[in-house]
Design a protein that fits this description.
single chain; 248 residues; Arc Repressor Mutant, subunit A; Rossmann fold; 7-stranded parallel sheet; 3-stranded antiparallel sheet; 9 helices; 15 strands; globular
Length: 248
Amino acid sequence: MLKAERHSFILHQLNIYNRILSSDLSQKLNVSEDTIRRDLNELADSGQLIKVHGGALSRSYGHIATRSEVYATNQKDIIAQKTLSLIREGMFLLLGGGTTVRSLVRMIPSHLRLTIFTISPVIALELIENPNLEVYLLGGRVTAENQICSGGEVIHRLSEIRVDLLILGTTGIDAVQGLTESDMEVVQVKKAMMKSADQVAILTISEKLGTSHRMKLCDLGSIQTLITELEPQDASLQMYAKAGLTLL
């Protein structure tokens, strides 16, 4: 594979996942980690990504991304619109972070009265603009990398609440491997979130279907609803339907 092709692949992976590991890129591209490090250094020098130990981050990390910086905005808007059908007056919701959830928050009708908990300061700031929402930020340590609260404090606070619906993004989802992440702290927080919810809805663009990462979050049996931009009848979703998930 030519260097330009590797660079294009790396940037596309960052668009989808926001964070990539050099070791994973080495395996996917079948080149040495030294080659990947040189590629990442070149892309960082040209301002196209942020080089960190062991990999790279999207340029949108470290600040609140504008809509023009968000990847696949049209697909995420479709997912958000579908998710609205799950939300009813008076519900208690728990929201994760991420740009798809941000799209959803902006679409919540102003007349709905809801109680919403979130681990994301970015999501909380969006929510408080709606006067009919009672908003709780479950605090903890916040990193620029993940833009969510993590650590023992937030896990303890999650153990003290019970919500009707958890709305969550994912880094990877596969019919066999289930839901996976690339960060163990994120896994621990998301597991605690799932324990606090009666129902779990996963939001993901279709490019993440059939992908897996190093850290296991849960099997498909732990979630109830999968929401993508695709029609539920799409062939790529049928293995998830067979696993018993409701598709939107």
